[in-house]
Here is the input.
Amino acid sequence: MGRIRVLVVDDHRIFAESLAAALAAEPDVDVSAAGSAPAAQRCLERAATDARRYDVLLIDADLGAANRIPAPATPKMPEPRPPEQQLQAHPQLQAVHSDSTPGLDGIALVERVRTEHPGTRIVVLAERDDARRAARALQAGASGWVAKDCSLSRLLAVMRGVLRDETHLPPALLTGVLRELTAARRHRTESELLVESLTPREQEVLRCMVAGLGRKAVAERLYLSPHTVRTHMQNVLGKLGVHSTLAAVALARRAGVGPVDLAASAGSSSA
Here is the structure.
């Protein structure tokens, strides 16, 4: 399989350094660590520019969470040493990159990485088992969900497995995750049928709503009067059976409706 490039993304610095040091001791692993979502995104962009993309990301499920359970103080892997000793012992281990900006949470970062770096496999590290959140992680694009206090050998097996396009979940979560995914699929199907009931113009207005555009911005983009846009928005809410723009956007996302491409619009208007 060759060398595996790994990025650990966790805002518990001691845990991140401990895990990174343990992974760096493996002869076929190169590892870096990031202490926030923005720092992780910079690492990914730099690696892509240098044509040295990461193979696997290990992302904390509670990244950036304000009220979280404390991270395991003693994960089942070697005790952390001071960072300077880690770097001397394992020259392939890069320092932890941090950032004061909280950025995305763990699951949102999974979705962003899968969109912007589709070749990178993602394993979510969790402090507790949660079937609903594990299902959300898989829907966002993760290939595995692993307890933070698992053994190093288990984590390595999962990492190598996801690189073979396998999906890894704790056996205790399988039934709950399948139930959640089935329910999500049913809700998505119902949402898709409602979106299909919209006219093409109403669907276009809905995509603008998903992008966060207000009535005036939608009118300017679609070359319509604000009154006409207001009518279309009211029709969208009525056909979707919701009473607010936020509810319409949530339903649209369940149906797989993405936002209108604002960058393309800006580019065409400046051309």
In short: Residues 66-75, 77-96, 266-271 have pLDDT under 50 and may be disordered. Strands lie at 4-9, 29-34, 56-60, 96-97, 121-126, 144-147. Residues 22 and 78 are 6 Å apart (CA to CA). The two ends are 46 Å apart (CA to CA).
